[in-house]
């Protein structure tokens, strides 16, 4: 059996007629840049996330760059973030002239360790230069949003939520209220890269904020810095959400919550099968937990005792596609070698142990069963040696 890590074609087949109709409507309208679909999709996302402003841009990386730029972060400014993330989380800081301060992760969640964030905010010798914190809601699991709000208020720093993998994930506050990721930051971002839970058929991204002034900046900056065409108020960029992609995203957006529910069901099945096969001595599964809702952009396990790479090769030999997110932390990337060196033991351990198994809404139960059975076979063979 062949099991893909992600298969876009299965979802397309189920939505094909509706997607083609939506795209055809765009072409018939003759309005392929910043049209009605972009406007309506922004409004729909505002309502869904309960934010005041949603600004469509060309991709998630641009969204991060513009978000940092909107806060005036530049030369000499410091931004706390995680090294266990995709490159764009960090390059958005350095490309604006700022310097990242890397802190380690919480081993249970892979998210940024907020204890360490607070420690840096209290004790860093240049703490007055720390302007913001960028938490990443990794693999679809939300960072503690209530504590993020407290950190923002207590230390006077800006919060930029990187929600590239977490659209629709939630956190329950101590008063019983529930908020979605992206709704508490001064500015937040989404990515609609094709493999995301809400994926376009190309690149697309979005900026979220409740601040009118930040929203105005982002709207102007994304179109060459011009509020009125040909009259440029700043040196902006060309980063517009494509009308065709917006039309496709609106078709998928109507099913997003059902996609999330299916991902959670698959994650639960994975966890139950790993438990049933008595593999928890070898595999650490992600928590389903209470008080939060993970949307499982990826289903990522830890493989103990140095078996990760051999397990990956074994699964591939059995037709199962896997991936490593991430093989090297940002603190050890060559392009960031000029930054102050820092030891991040938990990040390094995660890079050596994590393995993403197949996860997408159209994944079949028998495929999950096959994946876990192959993991079981591997450890039976490995332990018999």
**Per DSSP, what share of the residues sits in E-state strands of 2 or more residues?**
15-25%
Low-confidence stretches: none
Residue share in helix: 40-55%
Mean pLDDT: 97
Structure characterization notes:
With 385 residues, the chain is an alpha/beta fold. 41% of the residues lie in helices and 15% in strands. A seven-stranded mixed beta sheet has the order 1-9-8-5-4-2-3, sandwiched between helices. A three-stranded antiparallel beta sheet has the order 7-6-13, with no helix packed on it. Strand 4 (130-134), helix 6 and strand 5 form a beta-alpha-beta unit. Helix 2 (36-49) runs parallel beside helix 8 (243-253) and helix 5 packs parallel to helix 6 (145-155). It is globular, with a radius of gyration of 21 Å. The two termini are 26 Å apart. The mean pLDDT is 97.
Q: What would the keywords be for this entry?
A:
three-stranded antiparallel sheet, 12 helices, seven-stranded mixed sheet, single chain, 385 residues
How would you summarize the topology of this molecule?
Layout: H1 8-29, H2 36-49, E1 53-57, H3 60-70, E2 78-82, H4 88-94, E3 99-103, H5 114-123, E4 130-134, H6 145-155, E5 158-162, E6 170-172, E7 178-180, E8 187-191, E9 205-209, H7 212-221, E10 226-228, E11 231-232, H8 243-253, H9 256-276, E12 283-284, E13 292-293, E14 299-303, H10 308-317, H11 345-353, E15 354-357, H12 365-384
Parallel strand pairs: 2-3, 2-4, 4-5, 5-8
Antiparallel strand pairs: 1-9, 6-7, 6-13, 8-9, 10-11, 12-14, 14-15
Helix pairs in contact: 1-8, 2-8, 3-4, 5-6, 9-12
């Amino acid at each position: 059996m062949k099991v893909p890590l992600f298969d876009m074609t299965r979802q397309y087949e189920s939505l094909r007629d509706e997607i083609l109709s939506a795209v055809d409507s765009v072409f018939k309208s003759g309005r392929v840049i910043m049209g009605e679909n972009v406007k309506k999709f922004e409004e729909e996302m505002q309502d869904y996330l309960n934010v005041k402003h949603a600004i469509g841009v060309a991709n998630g990386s641009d969204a991060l760059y513009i978000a940092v730029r909107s806060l005036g972060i530049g030369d000499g400014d410091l931004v706390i973030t995680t090294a266990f993330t995709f490159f764009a989380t960090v390059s958005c800081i350095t490309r604006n002239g700022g310097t990242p301060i890397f802190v380690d992760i919480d081993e249970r969640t892979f998210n940024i360790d907020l204890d360490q964030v607070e420690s840096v905010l209290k004790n860093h010798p240049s703490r007055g230069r720390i302007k913001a914190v960028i938490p990443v809601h990794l693999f679809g699991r939300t960072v503690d949003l209530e504590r993020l709000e407290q950190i923002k208020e207590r230390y006077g720093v800006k919060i930029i939520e990187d929600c590239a993998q977490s659209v629709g994930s939630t956190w329950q506050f101590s008063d019983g209220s529930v908020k979605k990721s992206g709704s508490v930051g001064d500015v937040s971002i989404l990515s609609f890269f094709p493999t995301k839970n809400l994926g376009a058929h190309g690149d697309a991204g979005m900026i979220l904020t409740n601040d009118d002034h930040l929203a105005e900046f982002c709207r102007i900056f994304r179109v060459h810095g011009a509020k009125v065409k040909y009259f440029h108020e700043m040196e902006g960029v060309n980063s517009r959400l494509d009308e065709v992609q917006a039309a496709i995203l609106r078709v998928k957006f109507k099913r997003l919550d059902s996609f999330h529910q299916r991902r959670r069901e698959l994650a639960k099945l994975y966890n139950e099968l790993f438990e049933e096969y008595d593999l928890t001595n070898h595999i650490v599964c992600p928590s389903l937990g209470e008080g939060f809702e993970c949307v499982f952009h990826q289903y990522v396990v830890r493989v103990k005792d140095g078996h990760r790479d051999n397990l990956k090769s074994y699964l591939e030999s059995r037709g199962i596609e896997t991936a490593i997110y991430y093989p090297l932390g940002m603190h050890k990337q060559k392009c960031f070698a000029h930054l102050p060196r820092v030891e991040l033991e938990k990040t390094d351990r995660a890079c050596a142990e994590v393995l993403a198994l197949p996860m997408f809404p159209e994944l079949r139960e028998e495929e999950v069963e096959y994946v876990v059975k192959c993991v079981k076979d591997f450890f039976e063979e490995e332990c018999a040696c």
